[in-house]
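Retro notes (design track)

What went well: tokenization of the new backbones is finally stable.
What didn't: we kept losing track of which sequence belonged to which structure.
Fix going forward: every design gets posted as structure first, then sequence, in one message. First example under the new rule, 472 residues:
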């Protein structure tokens, strides 16, 4: 059975751990050995915590044997994105400048996972300072997509996406400022949830853009994401943007029943300039929900035409403010791509930034109006398939278009408005998985997860796995 452990989701492993059919020590050993096996190909880890993981696994085993099972993530080996602080551990942000930075405290999400009994196997690579979508890192090398090693895994949480897809981390956390959870989730064929802004504390996470940043689950299944969100959600006085809302049991609300669910489709923006194969897959996914009793309504969201500009001005300005001192003192220590972005961030004026915030306000109102008519909005997560590592252009129906401009088009609006967005697999284009995005009103995570689960039950990945999961 041990050969199959790396292939199992948390929802499958948790009962085996609870009833003592397997041990956290056995599981952790399998995951780390598999990480060793896959790292030469995918390069997902920044650091593997072998001794710490073994110690934590033994502690989890002892607790479970003594009847002190803490819940779904007790004894689950997982690595996290390397912008989340671990006390007394190096957190690099996959950068040169912070390569020796050591925090003296745990990020709130790390502390909550420790309390839940998770076993930390290490830190995962990311696009430098989370400011990019390829995870082609100039300092630590490119992370590769487990489905096709020549392709990008998406970013900035590319290490998290690749590790979960390859089985070298059972689950993970990513951060999302313009799509950095959902982009790699789509590219790597896993589930990625950007929660409502404020639902999950960002305390102890190195920021990219204060008002756009989120932390959320990246997992093999929807139920894994629901269980992980239950662990990390909740008010935190240390985060000034934290929302004081009641905690929910997301798992208990996943039934797969979508009868009478009203799905909103916005053709003008979310289905405009989309790869034809991706368009067909997403519409087929919507139809599969209609076949289960859902309904579809077309909605207009006029301010979406300005969303890309507002997202760009906001993220550029805030990110450049954060890195202003280092940009002036040691610009050569940034990778070429993000140094250019930080320099561009010096260009928008105060007027530009404030106008972008007015667009955000209007966009929120437009989404709220749409959600008076529909329960969720569904779109492609990405309008294009992942491209080859090192290339700046990507194919869109026979045209070569800029990768960055296109790949964040459909994910950015949820960051601007703060509404939740979930990416779930909906099929394949060639050998690469494709994601479908589900968005809803603020704090509607349970509804999104249930909708994603209904789609997941149609088996869109048809049992296919990356070759790295098939071990001799």
């Amino acid at each position: 059975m041990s050969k199959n452990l790396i292939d199992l989701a948390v929802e499958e492993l948790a009962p085996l751990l609870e009833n003592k059919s397997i041990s956290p020590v056995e599981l952790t050993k399998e995951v780390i050995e598999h990480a060793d096996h896959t790292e030469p190909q995918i390069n997902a880890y920044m650091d593997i915590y072998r001794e710490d993981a073994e110690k934590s696994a033994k502690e989890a085993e002892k607790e479970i044997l003594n009847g002190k099972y803490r819940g779904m993530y007790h004894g689950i080996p997982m690595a996290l994105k390397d912008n989340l602080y671990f006390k007394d551990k190096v957190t690099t942000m996959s950068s040169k400048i912070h390569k020796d930075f050591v925090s003296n405290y745990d990020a709130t999400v790390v502390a909550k996972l420790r309390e839940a009994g998770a076993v930390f196997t290490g830190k995962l690579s990311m696009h430098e300072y989370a400011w990019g979508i390829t995870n082609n890192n100039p300092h630590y090398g490119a992370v590769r997509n487990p489905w096709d090693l020549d392709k990008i895994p998406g970013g900035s949480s590319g290490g998290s996406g690749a590790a979960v897809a390859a089985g070298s981390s059972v689950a993970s956390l990513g951060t999302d400022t313009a799509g950095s959870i959902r982009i790699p989730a789509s590219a790597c064929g896993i589930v990625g949830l950007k929660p409502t802004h404020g639902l999950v504390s960002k305390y102890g996470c190195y920021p990219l853009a204060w008002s756009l940043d989120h932390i959320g689950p990246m997992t093999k299944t929807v139920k894994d994401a629901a269980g992980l969100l239950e662990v990390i959600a909740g008010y935190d006085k240390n985060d000034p943007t934290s929302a004081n809302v009641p905690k929910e049991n997301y798992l208990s609300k996943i039934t797969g029943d979508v009868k009478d669910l009203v799905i909103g489709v916005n053709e003008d923006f979310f289905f405009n300039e989309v790869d034809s194969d991706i368009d067909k897959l997403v519409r087929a996914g919507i139809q599969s929900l209609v076949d289960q009793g859902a309904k579809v309504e077309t909605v207009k969201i006029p301010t979406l035409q300005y969303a890309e500009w507002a997202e760009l001005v906001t993220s550029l300005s805030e990110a450049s403010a954060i890195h202003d001192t280092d940009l002036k003192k040691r610009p050569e220590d940034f990778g070429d791509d993000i140094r250019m972005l930080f320099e561009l961030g010096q260009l928008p004026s105060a007027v530009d930034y404030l106008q972008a915030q007015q667009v955000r306000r209007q966009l929120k109102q437009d989404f709220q109006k749409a959600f008076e008519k529909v329960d969720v909005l569904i779109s492609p997560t990405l309008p294009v398939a992942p491209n080859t590592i090192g290339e700046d252009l990507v194919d869109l129906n026979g045209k070569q278009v800029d990768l960055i401009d296109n790949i964040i088009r459909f994910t950015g609006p949820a960051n601007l408005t703060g509404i939740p967005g979930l990416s779930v697999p909906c099929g394949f284009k060639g050998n690469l998985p494709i994601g479908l995005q589900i968005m809803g009103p603020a704090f509607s995570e349970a509804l999104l997860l249930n909708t994603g689960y209904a789609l997941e039950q149609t088996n869109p990945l048809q049992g296919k796995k990356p070759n790295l999961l098939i071990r001799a």
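Added context from the reviewer: Residues 2-462 form a domain with the Amidase signature (AS) enzymes fold (CATH 3.90.1300.10).
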